[in-house]
């Protein structure tokens, strides 16, 4: 299976996630939140519930719902904003609303928001009446380049992030680049961490392009952003099409995430953004890759430099000891049996999963890593 090359119609770019019967388009460009006809074309029935949070609703809910055709039965549900609300209780509210509205198996959910909303709405769709359609309308850069594509859905459990969930693919992903104009710059940088990740794991030329264009991206140059989103989604779509349920190559998308999840969990979700924690995690992964003799100091420095240029942290939290890291890294879902599995950098543009880094080497890497 593979992804189609992208096609451009007017100022929109379209990619295809090739998953047989569950294939779906990713459409990228300006104005998509107000293009209700396009959204409606992806719906199986006429009942649709748009789920968002209070911050995103303020900017985009009316724009989306008012553009939907009158023939649809449209409901909305506004959840509280924040990773702390990415819980089973929030998903129950979605099911309650669907049941109270009498929505049937041909109804659809629309996720309007960042990764938190997208993950919860996808999970709600996976379970409601044993599975209904959902459409992703991601509004953060992180959700546009990562969480809205690939079908990983779920919620956090008090004992671990994203521990409860399902694989459930959307019917379509509509990425409105205009939404980035209201995104706080810290959130933009968080999304850039995932964009940089694609270059590091899969595409050296893309990384070089990012090194050249980083300031334009941070200044919200829409053409550059659309290109970065398109390339990121194309790489993610290719990897997901090859390994939908993460039996192999999909794990490479987790570069920096084992270290990063440890930081997020230790610091308390929300204090460090996901992309910020992943950013430091990628530098730590590069450091460990150098210790294993795979890359040289210049490659580690290059990784550090592009991450810093994106406005992201490159130092770990001062309060985290080696044991704090290791205790949380051991909870990672990638681990099999008792072995710690890490995604590391083989060379810039190529990653691998490795479970044989000597523990003493890993401990030195964490202990000697710069702190902020
Ligand atoms: N499913 C996956 O494959 C996958 C991959 C990566 C991350 N994730 C998950 O995604 C979540 C993080 O996603 P996120 O970074 O989008 O966080 P988020 O959904 O919390 O959004 C970040 C903040 O930006 C606000 N916001 C969203 N769009 C906005 C806009 N256009 N203008 C102004 N404000 C806006 C949100 O209300 C929120 O306050 C985590 O829960 C993570 O686990 C999932």
TrEMBL record:
The entry's free-text remark on the cofactor is: Binds 1 divalent metal cation per subunit. Can use either Co(2+) or Zn(2+).
Major location category of this protein: cytoplasm
GO CC entries: cytoplasm
Q: Where in the cell is it found?
A: Cytoplasm
Q: Where does NAD(+) bind?
A: 81-86, 115-119, 139-140, 152, 161
Q: What is its EC number?
A: 4.2.3.4
Asked whether the UniProt record includes NAD among its keywords, one would answer: yes
Q: Which InterPro entries match?
A: Dehydroquinate_synthase, DHQ_synth_AroB, DHQ_synth_fam, DHQS/DOIS_N, DHQS_C
Its Gene Ontology molecular function terms?
Answer: 3-dehydroquinate synthase activity; metal ion binding; nucleotide binding
Which domain of life, per UniProt? Bacteria
Summarize the protein's role. Answer: Catalyzes the conversion of 3-deoxy-D-arabino-heptulosonate 7-phosphate (DAHP) to dehydroquinate (DHQ).
Q: Which NCBIfam families does this UniProt record tie to the protein? A: aroB (TIGR01357)
Which reaction is recorded as catalysed by this protein? 7-phospho-2-dehydro-3-deoxy-D-arabino-heptonate = 3-dehydroquinate + phosphate
Q: Where is the 3-dehydroquinate synthase C-terminal domain?
A: 191-335
Task: List residues binding Zn(2+).
Answer: 194, 257, 274
- Keyword annotations for this protein? Amino-acid biosynthesis, Aromatic amino acid biosynthesis, Cobalt, Cytoplasm, Lyase, Metal-binding, NAD, Nucleotide-binding, Zinc
Gene Ontology biological process terms in this record: amino acid biosynthetic process; aromatic amino acid family biosynthetic process; chorismate biosynthetic process
Q: What is this protein called?
A: 3-dehydroquinate synthase
- CDD domains for this protein: DHQS
Q: Which family does it belong to?
A: Belongs to the sugar phosphate cyclases superfamily. Dehydroquinate synthase family.
Q: Which cofactor does this sequence's record say it needs? A: Co(2+); Zn(2+); NAD(+)
Lineage of the source organism?
Answer: Bacteria, Pseudomonadati, Pseudomonadota, Gammaproteobacteria, Oceanospirillales
Please tell me which top-level EC class this enzyme sits in.
Answer: lyase
